């Protein structure tokens, strides 16, 4: 063979000769000739020529390539030609993979045969790669431009199914390249064109957008391995580095694919240097280059992050080239570098067996990560915290850094970014889950042990210092110095016969002395070493306790902050906070129960995600107990729920009912066993504390809400255990028992309500316990009495008769004994409770019973009624459609109940106590006992609920008590009572509204807290109209008590949801707060206004407020009022329309501009407008700002005089003939002069 095949750069290069003996295509076939020649080439393959047939038929397949390059890619001819040509080339390459190994291993190839085989390899590989590129391009274009049907996807008739063949083709190419075909080249030097031909084909395949999908994994893996062979055997490493960078710059979706490829080349083909080369290329990118590349930056970031998860150890030698990007402007690259550092720390630089160099690298990387916890970009901060979370979860963080990193994480809880806060919470949860300290101890518990051990260490150090160092010469050194002199003396004075004996004796005695000295020295050294060891152990113990205390302090700080985050408005943050509380509780962290209790009210949240998170948290903590048996699980569940209920408030118990009720609704072996354990605890069958018995009965009450037979069938047990003879010993247990029994009334349905007879043992126990407690001074009797009377009205058939007997019995007991103020106060409390629940009974139970009976009667009448006349039927239908029938009946029932309240209630036993209540409340000097005054005022307010007449007669007295009573508890109770009365009799209470608002300024914090709570409910439920007195609520935004300030803020948050509510109130609030008589500090006024104006977001509201506030300058009398109005204007987000209003109202405030306190806020408005104004509008703002400055510096009168003079000059110039252009310089000069004079 006299010619050589040179792999061309382009197809056309084969048509012209470039060198001597270079193969040139002789004949490019026409489309009509192609089918015949392709069939001929295909038929030659099975015969003697085999793969060598490509030498003869190369021009045929080449003609196919030329033909498809100029024809329509989707034509049927194109597909058929490519299919036939590809089949031929596939067969040739497959044949080469089979025949070449034996030829290469034989070593007997002649020069001619070697040249022939080389030409076959190059020709077949060239054709295969070019055909593959064409098939891939056509397949991709067809998938984009057309929407192929199922048949087309499967391949047209006679066509090639490329999706299924691609993997086979690449596998064939891989097998060929893995052979030692380099020996076919002279000196095994493969030309660059051959390498480029193969690699370009592979990179072309990688550009397919679907290459990263899971279905393309086999194809992707083969391509990576083919490129790996090229990198290792064919010197393609440098080209691969350049190409990877180019792919990342242009194809963002290839970041993970490129990372997998580089990792494969590094691990399976031993090319570790390629990792460093690519990292160096990325590290050398400047900020300007990265800014130009756009999406390439994101691809680089994803590539580095993915590569770090695959080969972190290979990245360590070159990681320094990436560190400069941490100071760059690209946040995504900073994130990527931090993730690389994190993976290296977790996968490589972890454990205790690191050498000094590795430890130094670890500490340096950790320092770098810590710096970027405070990165300027929130996404970087969040990702760094997530990296630290992974490090902590992998136990790769050194113990000495725990406290430092945790302190930084606690600080990030206050970050403005929600994403950062979430990541900080996750990191803190990881610290708790993987800490080496004892989280169960609080910092307070650790303080005393730490002080004790520190004192012990100081004592040991003082003892060590007290022992002065003494110069000790060892016996060996002493003997070595004395030995020459002793030996010469002995030899000189002793005879030869005795010399040996005496020398032996001296040596023996010297040896004994030396042994004794060495023994003493070794004992001394051992004692010293022992003391030093003990001191080192003590130092380690002290350091451990210090670290534990620091960790506990950080955990306490974190819990305090995260507990407050439970009520954030951001759902995801609340969910993370809930999960943190669960984690802390599972690891028994000190004070973790506080967070678990605090999130309990979120079961009422309107956000379904938050509510579900809380319910799932409680299920995980309390309702999924661990244990070997059902009994053990029940014990654990009861213990955990009981612990949660200790010292729980009524609101907490109500929230817990919502969660526990669902558990008791399910019929299971565990639920049955839990109920059994609860009854055993309550009844005392197992020894338990009083708190556990109370918790047990409350849990039984929660179970009764799901299935009332749990309690209803055991009323006798409840009465005998908690309401029997020893009821006076434990009124708290009795109260909780009554609450549990009340829960069975929640099942009242439309049928006949559950009522027990008056002579039931339960009511005799209750009345006796109440009556006996009247003459006792038990502080818990009051709450028991209220719940007991409530139960009587809920469950007894004739509760009014029972309570009448109760009042008579209590009064008789009181009269029989020497009564004290305490006893009388308790009797009045009983009267008040009876009056309140009597009214509630009439309006709730009696009204419901009347409706039920009316419904039954109407049903019977409908069934028994005869056929009515058409006219009557039409009239009744109209009444029913208008709702007159039901409405008239309900009105009649309501009027009936009202008459009972006005006549019968005040005509029975209750009327006897009313004069006594009025007398006690109106004579505070005579009846000065605190408990008596409190009970009387509360009972009077409950009596006033009976009828409008009683309320009207005593409303002035109750407000007098509210204003003049020296007792905060009385004032607070009066506010609550007046809130209830406002709901019941709004017309009577409406004139007294200012008196209620006045309590917001009460000197006692508890009264202010009660007032803001009551008023919030009244205003938000539209019971009370919002008036200018809301300014008193605004003052509470700065209350020294944080809880009151938060309630005030919540008031305005809720009020802002009502249309225009705050907008309508703002002018009056400003006037009231800026009133000189109030004397509010300027800083406080500004703080309040800043918060209130944050609710004004609509442009129309802003425009209107600008006008209203400007008009108020006319009525403002003092400089302080002017300043307050100006500051209020500056807090508005003034836009172009608001600016026009400001110009229109110039006369309202222009005469006040000489005051700095007015001028500076208006100047601030101009600065805000100028920053975001368009050029035309900006000039208007600047012109107006000049006018403001001129009036401020020279006074309004001087500026107006100048403007008048300027106006007259303009008029004169208008009448003077001359060019039009002469007027413009005059205006410009005038303004320039004014501006110059202003700033002179």
Which strand-content bin applies to the residues?
A: under 5%
Query: Rounded to an integer, what's the Rg over CA atoms?
Result: 48 Å
The largest β sheet comes out as:
none
| Residues in helices, as a percent range | over 70%
Low-confidence stretches: 71-77, 147-159, 878-886, 1214-1240
Number of strands: 0
Main location: nucleus
Family: Belongs to the CND1 (condensin subunit 1) family.
Subcellular location: Chromosome; Cytoplasm; Nucleus
Pfam family, one: Cnd1_N
What this model shows, in words?
This protein has about 1250 residues and is an all-alpha fold. The protein contains 57 helices and no strands. α28 (about 670-685) crosses α29. The longest helix has about 70 residues, at about 495-565. The protein is extended and about 135 Å long. The model is unreliable at about 70-75, about 145-160, about 880-885 and about 1215-1240 (pLDDT under 50). Pfam families: Cnd1, Cnd1_N. Belongs to the CND1 (condensin subunit 1) family.
Question: Short summary of the structure?
Answer:
Belongs to the CND1 (condensin subunit 1) family. The protein is mainly α and 1240 residues long. Helices cover 73% and strands 0% of the residues.
């Amino acid at each position: 063979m006299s010619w050589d095949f040179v792999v061309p750069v382009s197809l056309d290069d084969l048509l012209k000769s470039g060198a001597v003996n270079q193969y040139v295509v002789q004949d490019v076939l026409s489309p009509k000739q192609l089918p015949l020649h392709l069939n001929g080439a295909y038929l030659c393959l099975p015969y003697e020529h085999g793969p060598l047939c490509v030498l003869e038929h190369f021009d045929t397949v080449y003609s196919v390539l030329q033909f498809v390059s100029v024809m329509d890619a989707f034509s049927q001819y194109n597909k058929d030609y490519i299919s036939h040509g590809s089949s031929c080339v596939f067969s040739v390459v497959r044949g080469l993979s089979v025949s070449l190994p034996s030829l290469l291993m034989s070593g007997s190839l002649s020069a001619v045969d070697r040249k022939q085989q080389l030409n076959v390899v190059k020709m077949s590989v060239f054709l295969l790669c070019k055909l593959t590129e064409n098939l891939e391009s056509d397949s991709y274009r067809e998938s984009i431009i057309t929407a192929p049907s199922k048949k087309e996807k499967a391949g047209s008739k006679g066509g090639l199914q490329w999706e299924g063949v691609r993997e086979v083709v690449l596998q064939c190419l891989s097998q060929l390249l893995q052979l030692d075909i380099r020996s076919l080249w002279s000196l095994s030097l493969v030309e660059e064109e051959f390498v480029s031909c193969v690699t370009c084909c592979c990179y072309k395949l990688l550009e397919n957008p679907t290459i990263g999908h899971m279905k393309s994994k086999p194809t992707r893996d083969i391509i990576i391995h083919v490129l790996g062979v090229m990198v290792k055997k064919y010197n393609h490493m440098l080209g691969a580095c350049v190409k990877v960078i180019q792919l990342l710059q242009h194809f963002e979706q290839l970041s993970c694919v490129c990372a997998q490829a580089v990792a494969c080349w590094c691990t399976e083909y031993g090319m570790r240097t390629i990792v460093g080369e690519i990292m160096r290329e990325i590290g050398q990118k400047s900020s300007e280059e990265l800014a130009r590349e756009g999406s390439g930056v994101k691809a680089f970031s994803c590539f580095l992050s993915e590569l770090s998860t695959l080969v972190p150890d290979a990245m360590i030698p070159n990681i320094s080239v990436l560190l400069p990007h941490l100071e760059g402007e690209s946040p995504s690259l900073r994130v990527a570098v931090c993730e690389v550092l994190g993976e290296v720390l977790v996968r490589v630089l972890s454990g205790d067996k690191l050498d000094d160099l590795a430890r130094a690298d670890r500490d340096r990387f950790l320092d770098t990560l810590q710096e970027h916890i405070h990165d300027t970009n929130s996404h970087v901060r969040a990702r760094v915290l997530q990296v630290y979370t992974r490090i902590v979860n992998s136990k790769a963080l050194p113990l000495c850094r725990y406290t430092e990193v945790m302190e930084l994480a606690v600080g990030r809880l206050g970050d403005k970014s929600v994403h950062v806060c979430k990541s900080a919470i996750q990191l803190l949860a990881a610290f708790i889950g993987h800490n080496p300290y004892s989280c169960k101890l609080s910092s307070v518990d650790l303080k005393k042990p730490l002080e004790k051990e520190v004192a012990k260490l100081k004592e040991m150090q003082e003892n060590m210092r007290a022992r002065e160092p003494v110069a000790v010469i060892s016996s060996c050194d002493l003997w070595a110095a004395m030995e020459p002199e002793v030996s010469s003396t002995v030899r000189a004075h002793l005879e030869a016969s005795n010399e040996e004996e005496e020398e032996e004796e001296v040596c023996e005695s010297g040896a004994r002395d030396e042994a004794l000295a060495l023994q003493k020295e070794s004992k001394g050294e051992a004692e010293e070493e022992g003391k030093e060891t003990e001191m080192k152990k003590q130092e380690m113990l002290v350091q451990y306790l210090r670290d534990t205390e620091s960790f506990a302090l950080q955990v306490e700080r974190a819990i305090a902050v995260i507990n407050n985050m439970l009520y954030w408005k951001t759902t995801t943050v609340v969910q993370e906070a809930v999960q943190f509380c669960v984690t802390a509780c599972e690891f028994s962290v000190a004070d973790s129960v506080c967070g678990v209790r605090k999130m309990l009210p979120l079961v009422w949240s309107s956000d379904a995600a938050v509510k579900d998170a809380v319910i799932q948290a409680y299920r995980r903590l309390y309702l999924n107990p661990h244990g070997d048996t059902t009994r053990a699980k029940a014990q654990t569940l009861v213990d955990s729920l009981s612990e949660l209920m200790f010292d729980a408030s009524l609101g907490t118990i109500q929230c817990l009912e919502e969660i526990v009720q669902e558990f008791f609704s399910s019929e299971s072996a565990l639920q049955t066993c839990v109920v059994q354990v609860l009854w055993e605890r309550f009844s005392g069958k197992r020894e338990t504390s009083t708190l556990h018995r109370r918790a047990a009965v409350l849990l039984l009450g929660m179970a009764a809400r799901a299935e009332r037979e749990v309690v209803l069938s055991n009323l006798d047990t409840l009465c005998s255990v908690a309401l029997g003879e020893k009821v006076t010993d434990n009124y708290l247990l009795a109260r909780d028992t009554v609450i549990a029994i009340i829960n069975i009334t929640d099942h009242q349905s439309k049928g006949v309500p559950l009522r027990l007879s008056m002579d039931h043992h339960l009511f005799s126990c209750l009345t006796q316990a109440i009556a006996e407690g009247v003459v006792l001074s038990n502080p818990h009797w009051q709450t028991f009495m209220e719940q007991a009377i409530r139960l009587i009205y809920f469950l007894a058939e004739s509760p009014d008769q029972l309570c009448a007997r109760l009042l008579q019995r209590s009064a008789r007991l009181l009269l029989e004994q020497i009564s004290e103020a305490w006893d009388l106060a308790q009797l009045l409390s009983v009267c008040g409770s009876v009056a309140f629940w009597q009214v509630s009974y009439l309006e709730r139970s009696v009204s419901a019973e009347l409706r039920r009976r009316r419904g039954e009667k109407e049903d019977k009448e409908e069934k028994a009624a005869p056929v009515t006349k058409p006219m009557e039927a039409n009239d009744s239908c109209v009444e029913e459609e208008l709702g007159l029938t039901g409405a008239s009946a309900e009105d009649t029932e309501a009027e009936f109940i009202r008459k009972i309240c006005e006549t019968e209630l005040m005509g029975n036993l209750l009327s006897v106590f009313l004069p006594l209540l009025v007398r006690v409340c109106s004579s505070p000097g005579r009846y000065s006992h605190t408990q008596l005054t409190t009970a009387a005022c509360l009972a009077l307010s409950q009596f006033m609920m009976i009828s409008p007449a009683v309320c009207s007669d005593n409303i002035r007295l109750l407000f007098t008590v509210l204003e003049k009573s020296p007792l905060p508890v009385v004032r607070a109770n009066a506010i609550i009572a007046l809130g209830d009365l406002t709901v019941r009799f709004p017309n009577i209470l409406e004139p007294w509204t200012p008196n209620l608002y006045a309590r917001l300024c009460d000197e006692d914090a508890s009264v202010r807290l009660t007032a803001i709570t009551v008023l919030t409910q009244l205003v938000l439920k539209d019971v009370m109209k919002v008036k200018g007195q809301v300014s008193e609520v605004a003052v509470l935004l700065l209350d020294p008590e944080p809880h009151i300030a938060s309630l005030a803020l919540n008031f305005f948050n809720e009020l802002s949801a009502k249309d225009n509510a705050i907008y309508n109130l703002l002018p009056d609030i400003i006037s009231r707060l800026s009133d000189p008589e109030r004397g509010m500090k300027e800083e406080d006024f500004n703080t309040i206004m800043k918060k209130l104006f944050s609710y004004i977001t609509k442009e129309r509201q802003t425009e209107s407020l600008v006008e209203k506030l400007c008009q108020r300058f006319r009525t403002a009398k003092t400089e302080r009022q002017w300043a307050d109005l100006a500051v209020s204007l500056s807090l508005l987000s003034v836009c172009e329309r608001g600016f026009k209003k400001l110009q229109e109202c110039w006369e309202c405030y222009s005469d006040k501009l000489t005051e700095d306190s007015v001028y500076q806020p208006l100047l601030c408005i101009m600065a805000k407008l100028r920053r975001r104004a368009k050029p035309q509008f900006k000039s208007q703002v600047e012109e107006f700002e000049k006018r403001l400055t001129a009036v401020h510096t020279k006074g309004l009168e001087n500026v107006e005089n100048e403007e008048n003079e300027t106006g007259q000059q303009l008029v004169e110039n208008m009448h003077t003939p001359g060019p039009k252009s002469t007027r413009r310089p005059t205006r410009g000069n005038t303004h320039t002069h004014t501006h110059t004079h202003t700033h002179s």
